[in-house]
């Protein structure tokens, strides 16, 4: 371990590893600190849909070889409501697709590209603390996996350690939050996908979703009360609700063993600004968007690549991109936050019979009819759904 480096990256998720790979490949010294083991982060199931612009960005930086050679892609989804199927092709309107690549596979690729090619990374660290972040000589102290206390001086600290990490506690400015007032039961089933694309079920019993992960594993979501317990959802109840909310006569669901059940309370937050002194946050350290529109992983990569370019510009004598970093990233963050809220209204406002707010339920139904019936509305929706032209 060196006593000083250019950038200390706290957290080895997609944001931290994406940033570290680009910095190292461009000759900028960096060290990654990760609380968990390598085996843990390579196995942890998270997001699975990567927007085409993000795949292109990974490829341009030499980080997408395995993804491009193995990941299937999708350009359509299907609403299911009133016992019928309502397909929607966003590729038709936006010309781009999603790549289906579970986050743990991307993390595995990024770890291999970094750690196995000489990148400096410490797994299993604890007691991470930041020091002098508003000075020109910040540092990070931590306890290494072998129990040794260490201090690492640097030029910049990149906070990429997520919603529960230590780095976001150091931000000043505003923390803007939103609570949707609903929960989602997140499920992984050892079952092949029941459709060739995403299914969104809009049903009086609550929202449901189906998303392929691999040829043998499928992600499902069920709307539930916030704060609900996984214990309230045994196998039989889960599949009964999925069949009711997603099943249609010509589109049955394939059942399988449930290998993960987690209740997610749907909420969002945004830190403004995403930096303080020499500390710059990326990914869920800086902002959280509920999985309603599958945006979190894509935002993490967006932040990472902009931060890498800004740090590179600094070492080239130009601090303008670093000064603009927060505003640059927040432009897309807020577009994705707004879209998540818009889509949530369609998914959830009319899923209780009778609806909690009949007026909002009628608005959501009008939005859905417009989306399915208007080419102009379909094109506008598709651009933000796939992340095209989102930086405005």
From TrEMBL:
Where in the numbering of this chain does the FAD-binding domain appear?
A: 5-339
User: Which InterPro entries did the record assign?
Assistant: FAD-bd (IPR002938), FAD/NAD-bd_sf (IPR036188), RIFMO-like (IPR050641)
Gene3D superfamilies from the UniProt entry: D-Amino Acid Oxidase, subunit A, domain 2 (3.30.9.10), FAD/NAD(P)-binding domain (3.50.50.60)
Q: Per UniProt, which keywords does this protein have? A: FAD, Flavoprotein
Q: Does the keyword Kinase apply?
A: no
Pfam families assigned to the protein according to its UniProt record, in alphabetical order: FAD_binding_3
The domain of life is Bacteria
This one is known as 4-hydroxybenzoate 3-monooxygenase
What is the species listed in this Swiss-Prot or TrEMBL entry?
Amycolatopsis tucumanensis
